[in-house]
Amino acid sequence: MGTATGSAFDTETLRRGIEGNTGNTLLSLYSDDAEIRIVDRNNQPSHPTVLHGRGQIAELLDDIYSRDMTHKLDRCVVQGDQVAYSESCEYGDGTRVLAESMVTLRDGKIADQLIIQAWDE
């Protein structure tokens, strides 16, 4: 991994952010007006959860990183201003979560992200 040519998106910062203990590093990768759409069992494609701006994204990350769980960046592909990555997570009780993200960059920052996630039930 490394810095993507042209987009200045640093995948090593993405790895450190995802695998870290707080959402602060990850939050630094988002533009001020970024949007995240989340699709999962409870938020289906017709009605995804939609977060607007770094404030709402910070709240999500604070919630996620306050939980007893680990996060791992499994794969990441950068092509121009598009990034796709896979993330695996595990709660302290062994429950696993998988998430796939498709990202659009603007000036090297995440401007739009679609997250599709599934977890053990």
UniProtKB/TrEMBL annotation:
InterPro entries tied to this protein: NTF2-like_dom_sf, SnoaL-like
Region forming the signal peptide: none
Organism taxonomic ancestry: Bacteria, Bacillati, Actinomycetota, Actinomycetes, Kitasatosporales
Superkingdom classification of source: Bacteria
Domain SnoaL-like, residue spans: 24-112
Name the record gives this protein: Nuclear transport factor 2 family protein
Gene3D superfamilies: 3.10.450.50
